[in-house]
Amino acid sequence: MRKALPGVWAMLRPKRGLLLAGLILIVINRIAGFALPLSTKALIDYVIGKHMSHLLLPIVGGLLLATLIQALTAFALSQLLSKAAWRLITDLRIQVQEHIGRLPIAYYDANRTGVLVSRIMSDVEGLRNLVGTGLVEFLGGVLTAALTFVVLLWINIKLTLMVFGILAVFIAAMKWWFGTLGPLFKRRAVIFADVTGRLTESMGGVRVVKSYRAEARESAVFAKGARQLLDNHLRGITNNSLMGMSSTVVIGIVASIVMFFGARGILAGSMTLGSYITYTVFLAFMVAPLFQVVSIATQLTEAIAGLSRTREVLAEKDEDSDPRRTGRFGSTLAGEVILQDLRFSYQAGKPVLHGISFVSKPGSVTALVGPSGSGKSTIINLINAFHTPDSGVITVDGVDLTTVELGSYRCFLGVVLQESFLFDGTIRDNISFSRPDATYEEILEAARIARVDEFAERLPEGSDTIIGERGVKLSGGQRQRVSIARAILADPRILILDEATSSLDSESEALIQEGLAYLMRGRTTFVIAHRLSTIRQADQILFLEDGLIREQGTHEQLIASRGRYYDLYTRQYSLESNLFLAPGEGDQIVTEEDGFNGRPDLPSFSQALRGIR
Ligand SMILES: Nc1ncnc2c1ncn2[C@@H]1O[C@H](COP(=O)(O)OP(=O)(O)OP(=O)(O)O)[C@@H](O)[C@H]1O
C-alpha cells in the first residue's frame, strides 16, 4: 500500500489546489460544529447557573450562525469535490481507454477482455473516494480529533490523558487492521475482473455454449467465481464487524471512565456541570471522526488499490513508444513489401518463423498456403505491424517497418478477415468504419461493388438496418460482403485477406469472388488463401510448413515441380468446391485412409483440373 501512495499522489497532484480548498472548507465546517458544545457550557454555567439571562440571545444567535456556516460549507464541499471527482473519473477513463487502445496486440493476447473493461470502468472509480469527499473528510476527521484533543486537555488534563491512552491502543489496532485489508481488496478486484472476463466470453460464445450443452458448466464456472467474490466480501464484513464491535467496547469503556471521574470531579467541586457536559460532547466529537475515519479509510484503501492498477496499465508502453519510430510514410505508397530473413517467436525460446524472405511487388498478389500452425497468420500479423520481428526486417517501399509511426503506415492497410468482425450498428456504419469521413455516395458505391446493396435493399430498413453484435443478424456471406465493402471504401494500398475455410453456396461465392477481385486489383495483396480461384490468380504462392517457406512460385510452377504443394493439391476432394485446405485447415480434408488414393485420374481431380485450365 505504501508503495502505491507516491503513484496515486502523482495522479492527484493536479487537483491539489482543489483538495486544499476542500480541506479549508472542512476545517471551517468542523470549527463551526464546535459551537454547539461550547454554547451548551455557556448556557449551563452562566445563563442557568449564574442567571445571566442577557447572554441567552447572543448564544442562540451564535449557534444559528454557526449552523448556517456548517450547512453552507457542507454544500460547497460536495459541490466542489464530488463533481470534480466525477470529472476526474471520466477524464481518467478516457485516458485509460485511449492508452489501452494504443497498446500492442501482445498486451491484448495476454489480458482478457473483461479484465481490460474493468480496468477502464471500475478501477478508476477509486478517485471518487480520494477526490470526492472521502480524502478530505478523512483529513478533516483527523484534524477535528486533534483540535478536540487540545480542547479536552484544556478542560481536564488527567482525564484526557487516561482516555487517550485507551484510544491509542485502539488506533494501533486499526493500523494493523488496515494492513490486512489491502491484500483483501486487491484480491477482490482480481476475482471480479476474472468473473466478468469469463462472463463476457461465455456470452459472446453463446452459440458454442448452447451447441455443446455447456450452459450448466458455464453456470458452474460463474457460480464458483461469484462464490469466491462472496467469500472475499464476507471476510471483509467480518473484519468490519470485529472493528465495529471493538469500537463499541472502546466507547463503552471511555464513557464509563469519563462518567466515573467526571461525577467525582463535580462532587469534589473541581469540575463544573457545564464543563462535564461540554467534555462529554467534545469527547463524542473526537471519537466520532475516529470511527468515521475507520470506514473512510476502508474506502480509501480500496481506492488506492484500484488506482495503483490503473497506473500499472498507464505505465505499459504503447506501440509507438519505441524511440526508433520516428519516420512517417508520405501521402502515397507504391506498396513494395520485402521480408528479409524474418524470425519471430511469441514466447521466448519458442520460434515460430525461422527465416522468411520474399518480395511482393507493388500491386501483386501473394498467396500464403500451408498446414495449420505453419505461420501464415503470424506473417500477416508482422506485415500488419501487430508484432515486431525478433530479427530480420520488413521493408515497405524500402522503409524498415520498425522505424515508422504506425498510424502513418496503417492508413494504407485494408483487411478482410475470415471472421469479418462487424459492430452492432447499421450496415452503413459498418462500411464507413474504415473511413468515417466518406460521403454517402462513396459508401453507396462501395456497397454496390461489394454487392451489399442486393441484400440490404431487401431488409426492412435497407442499409440503416441494425445488424446486431458482431453482425449476427446477417448470414456469413453477407457479413463478408459488408467487410469487403468496408475495405473497398478504405481504398488501401496493401490488402490483407484471410479467406474463409468454409464453402458458401455458389451464388454467394460468386458475389464474394467478384467483390474480392475488384478489391485486389492494383493493390499489394497478401492472402491466406483457401480459394482455388484466388490461388490461381496469385503472382506467387508461398507454401509454408513449420515456419519456413518450403516452396515458392506460381500455381503452374508448383504443380509442375510436383512437390508438397502438388501432393496436397491432388489429395483434395474439396477442389470441386473451389476450396484449398491444407492439413488442419477446415474439416474437408480426405486422406488416403478415408478411401482416396491420390491418383490423378480420379473424377474429382480431373474435374478440378478442368476448372483450373
Ligand atoms: N498469440 C500467440 N501466442 C503464442 N503462440 C501463438 C500465438 N499465435 C499463434 N501462435 C503459435 O504460432 C504458430 C503459428 O501460428 P499461425 O497462427 O501463424 O499459424 P497459421 O498457419 O496461420 O495456422 P491456421 O491456418 O491454423 O490459422 C502456431 O504454433 C501457434 O500455436
UniProtKB/TrEMBL annotation:
The chain crosses the membrane at residues 57-77, 130-155, 161-178, 242-267, 273-291. Its EC number is 3.6.3.-. GO terms for molecular function: ABC-type oligopeptide transporter activity; ATP binding; ATP hydrolysis activity. It is found in: Cell membrane. It is a multi-pass membrane protein. The keyword Hydrolase applies. It is an enzyme of class 3 (hydrolase). Residues 20-302 form the ABC transmembrane type-1 domain. One of its GO terms (cellular component) is plasma membrane. Pfam families: ABC_membrane, ABC_tran. Its main location: membrane. InterPro entries: AAA+_ATPase (IPR003593), ABC1_TM_dom (IPR011527), ABC1_TM_sf (IPR036640), ABC_transporter-like_ATP-bd (IPR003439), ABC_transporter-like_CS (IPR017871), P-loop_NTPase (IPR027417), Type_1_exporter (IPR039421). Residues 337-571 form the ABC transporter domain. Keywords: ATP-binding, Hydrolase, Membrane, Nucleotide-binding, Transmembrane, Transmembrane helix, Transport. PANTHER family: ATP-BINDING CASSETTE SUB-FAMILY B MEMBER 10, MITOCHONDRIAL, ATP-DEPENDENT PERMEASE MDL1, MITOCHONDRIAL. This is Subfamily B ATP-binding cassette protein MsbA.
